[in-house]
Design goal:
The chain has one domain. About 75% of the residues lie in helices and about 0% in strands. It has a two-stranded antiparallel ribbon. A hairpin with a 4-residue loop joins strand 1 and strand 2. The chain starts with 12 loop residues before the first helix and ends with a helix. The model has no long low-confidence stretch (mean pLDDT about 80). It is found in: Cell membrane. It is a multi-pass membrane protein. Pfam families: Na_H_antiporter.
């Protein structure tokens, strides 16, 4: 997406149309007691209405506007992001069908003493969400068990569900196959492992503090048992493979493809699946990512149209009024993605909207894009784990059959509170900084420039 010198606040109107339609529909449905109110209107439809408004408001010919839309939809980062979504969906679906999630849950709960169940559920949720990349999937898998353990063990139900949501957001923020990680790293043009390292310096201390607090304050009044849970170590291997290999820096396409193959083998051996059933399961994973796939493309196109008209430059111009250096620039990025998530109640959408603006701010204030990706992912997950109308909180509260309302869970989101505090501290005390600096001329870490220049030289020699 090319830069231009236009500055126009009016260019943001199509974005506002998208957000207002999405947000107002959710509010109205919520007031009418519709379940999962903020997820009844498909986000791509709201984005499509925003695109229509851009065509009506912006100057120029229809062909020029259409070219700008297609340029944004076909941006290389958008296409890569979408392909990764498909592979991540296939891996998650196949691994789940092979019994991986159930085995992870069973393994964890079988070894946790009953008096540590609240902290244990938090810990298991952390592992499952890191392995699967899905906070919603983690809450869905663990929710019924968490409610049952809290009820039978005399544990505060809201506290138990608060720990479950917190652990789920821990992995959503860190997982290398999470859609938030994919969106954050692709929009900022950095590697997942680098963003993971920066995130870990904030998330790990927050997780440890939360775990200790849950050990102290989350003890049950009576003893509960989880001995009936079973697990199969073989079913967990694909998750371990994906996590370890991704952190080694292997190309994400190879990582996910390897994970799909391993999960497929486990599925074929353990569940008696045939190859045709396996391909259908993979296809189910692909189609499960259709909404976020389409939304990413449409938002990419809309972002490019808004950018061409000077909308992003206008936001940056406003941020410049208080962002004078790297620290205030980082605070601006954190505020931007936080407000976006509060508006749309979807952390991935918030990152997709904020990513292009954050990237421009990186160049403006010399902010390391790896740090920018970390901030985008972290603060979007913090607020996604707060908003009572978000999918994660609604699903968790839904398991109580009305005993606990979504708003009642907010005081027990200890992990999100602690992560927010530590993340803000990290802006003013930069303990997450990478060892090698980012070279903005080549848009990559200095440690990679030598290889980059050599590749350019080899290419030049091959051509001439």
């Amino acid at each position: 997406m090319k830069n231009n010198d236009k500055i126009s606040g009016k260019a943001l109107i199509p974005f506002l149309v998208f957000v207002l339609i999405y947000l107002s529909t959710g509010i109205i449905l919520h007031l009418n007691n519709v379940e999962m109110a903020f997820y009844q209107l498909p986000a791509p439809i709201a984005a499509f209405v925003g695109i229509i408004s851009a065509f009506l408001l912006f100057k120029g010919s229809i062909d020029e506007k259409f070219d700008n839309l297609i340029e944004g939809c076909g941006d290389s980062n958008i296409i890569i992001m979408c392909l990764i979504y498909l592979l991540a969906g296939a891996f998650s679906t196949v691994a789940n069908a092979s019994g991986g999630v159930d085995s992870v849950v069973g393994l964890g709960l079988s070894f946790i003493p009953a008096r540590f169940l609240t902290a244990g559920v938090f810990l298991i949720a952390c592992f499952i969400s890191i392995a699967t990349g899905s906070s919603v999937g983690t809450i869905t898998a663990l929710g019924p068990i968490a409610v049952g353990l809290a009820t039978s063990g005399g544990i505060n139900l809201a506290l138990m569900l608060g720990s479950l949501v917190g652990g789920s957001m821990f992995g959503d923020n860190l997982s290398v196959i999470s859609d938030t990680t994919i969106a954050a790293t692709r929009t900022q043009n950095c590697d997942m492992k680098d963003k993971f390292r920066m995130n870990m310096k904030m998330a790990l201390p927050s997780g440890i503090i939360t775990f200790i607090l849950l050990l102290i304050f989350g003890k049950p009044e009576t003893q509960a048992q989880a001995s009936d849970l079973t697990y199969n170590i073989i079913e967990i291997i694909p998750y371990i493979f994906v996590l370890v290999v991704a952190l080694m820096g292997v190309n994400v396409f190879l990582v996910l493809t390897g994970g799909i193959i391993l999960s497929g083998i486990v599925l074929l051996i353990n569940n008696g699946f045939n190859l045709l059933a396996l391909t259908q399961t993979m296809w189910e994973g692909f189609t499960g990512m259709f909404e976020i796939f389409l939304l990413s493309m449409l938002i990419g196109g809309l972002s490019n149209m808004v950018s061409k008209e000077g909308g992003i430059n206008w936001i940056i111009a406003k941020i410049r009024k208080f962002a004078k250096d790297e620290k205030s620039g980082e605070l601006g990025i954190a505020s931007l993605v936080s407000l976006a998530d509060i508006a749309v109640a979807n952390n991935t959408v918030a990152i997709i909207i904020s990513g292009p603006i954050a990237k421009k701010m990186c160049n403006e204030y010399k902010i390391d894009p790896r740090r920018s990706a970390s901030l985008l992912d972290t603060f979007s997950c913090v607020f996604q784990g707060f908003v009572p109308y978000g999918a994660q909180v609604l699903i968790a509260a839904g398991f109580t059959n009305g005993l606990v309302a979504p708003f009642e869970l907010i005081p027990f989101f200890w992990y999100q509170f602690i992560l927010a505090i530590i993340s803000i501290i990290s802006i003013y005390i930069p303990f997450t900084k990478a060892k090698d600096k980012w070279n903005f001329e080549y848009d990559m870490p200095e440690s990679k420039i030598a290889n980059h220049l050599k590749n350019l030289e080899d290419t030049e020699q091959a051509l001439f």
